[in-house]
Specification:
By secondary structure, the chain is of the alpha/beta class. It is built from ten helices and 19 strands. Helices cover 31% and strands 26% of the residues. The strands form four sheets. Strands 9-8-7-10-11-12 form a six-stranded mixed sheet, sandwiched between helices. A five-stranded antiparallel sheet has the order 6-5-13-2-15. A four-stranded mixed sheet has the order 17-1-19-18, with no helix packed on it.
């Protein structure tokens, strides 16, 4: 009888322990914490426009909303990004950015934060509207030469637009595929530049690494429903630099000229207005040189109660000649911090047709989760 009582007590104790463990498991869901990583493409030039090379992380100061930030990763030109550690730390102390640069972001994948920030993904957006009838072949030649010259870019995508967007070549390392897409384009009808540029930016925002959109436009926009200010803000928040190459046709409309200048300056890109096809090729060569000389800086923002627009200022510190100019995006709008029970890498629907640009949520990039369930979000 005593043995039966002891056995019953043990069984009851085991059932109670199992119930308690099960309840604790239900009360402790697997959460994924979003960590913001802000990435900046920074060009530094002298008074004559010559690129300044050889700068180090200690030469830069980043301030967000008046808060000085610490650089997490750094790269110059097309070199792979390296983590920036605090030399004042004691030996053996680990830096979060340094650990992230070594450990895979996806279980079973060789991808690291360092590899995600290396190189550049270039999206070329070609105007095939009825403005292009006279110079269509010359424009194709200029773009084809530009694509061939981007030897150091990781991948290139080629899109074209008139009233709708055509994703002629998805982001790829195969230059032959991109060149084939360039040669297969045909002239269309009215131009909806800002509609299609927003769609291109949304595609670009879903990829990791440095992201650039190069637009070739031969005239003003006459069909878009999206205001250019919204497009510019999305590009800034997504960390995509926009370069505009246009002919003198756009100069005939001062509004378009002003919009191109403001949009490119706000995102850290540049605007070019070519008088002829020779100058267009020179403009593409200038964009290529710019990509090869950009500094890539990233940081994890410190605590900031501002959930709206955050202003970014980048300056040179230390003993540097006066007159150096810095070009980068001037701010971003962060996504709200959130938690989720599961997170998957976001993949763009490259084969989807043109759609209403206002239908998407327009969020910033979210990188795949690490094994520790940390999602890195690049605004």
């Amino acid at each position: 009888m005593v043995r039966k009582s002891i056995l019953s007590l043990c069984l009851f104790s085991g059932l109670f322990t199992g119930y308690r463990n099960g309840a604790e498991a239900q009360e402790s869901p697997d959460l994924h914490v979003v960590v913001n990583l802000v990435q900046l493409n920074v060009a530094v030039t002298d008074k004559k426009g010559n690129y300044i090379t050889g700068l180090q992380p200690k030469d830069f100061s980043i301030v967000e909303d008046g808060i000085e930030e610490k650089i997490a990763t750094f790269a110059e030109g097309n070199e792979p990004a390296v983590s920036v550690t605090d030399s004042s730390k004691s030996k053996g102390a680990s830096d979060p950015a340094d650990e992230l640069s070594k450990e895979p972001l996806i279980a079973g994948s060789p991808q690291t934060l360092k590899s995600l920030l290396a190189g550049a993904n270039v999206f070329v957006l070609f105007d095939t509207s009825n403005y292009m009838y006279r110079g269509f072949v010359f424009a194709q030649d200029a773009i084809a030469e530009f694509v061939r010259s981007l030897e150091t870019a990781d991948k290139i995508a080629f899109y074209s637009y008139s009233r709708d967007l055509s994703r002629a070549a998805a982001l790829t390392a195969d230059r032959t595929q991109v060149l084939r897409a360039v040669r297969s384009t045909v002239a269309g009808d009215e131009a909806a530049l800002y509609n299609t540029l927003l769609l291109t930016l949304k595609d670009a925002a879903q990829y990791q690494g440095r992201k650039v959109v190069v637009v070739f436009s031969n005239g003003p926009d006459n069909s878009s429903v999206v205001p250019p200010e919204d497009v510019a803000e999305f590009a800034q928040s997504a960390g995509v630099s926009v370069y505009m190459i246009s002919t003198q046709e756009a100069r005939l409309e001062p509004l378009s000229t002003a919009v191109f200048d403001r949009m490119t300056a706000a995102t850290g890109g540049k605007a070019y207005f070519a008088k002829n096809w020779r100058e267009e090729k020179q403009a593409f060569a200038s964009v290529r040189d710019d990509l090869a000389h950009l500094y890539s800086l990233s940081y994890y923002p410190k605590a900031n109660p501002n959930s709206g627009w955050r202003a970014i200022t980048v300056k040179l510190v230390g003993d540097h000649p006066r007159g150096y100019k810095i070009r980068t995006r001037n701010g971003y709008r962060p996504r709200s911090a959130r938690f989720s029970s599961d997170a998957k890498p976001v993949q763009p629907d490259i084969n989807a047709g043109a759609r209403n640009p206002l239908s998407s949520d327009g969020g910033s990039e979210t990188t795949p989760t690490r094994k520790e369930n940390t999602t890195h979000q690049l605004p």
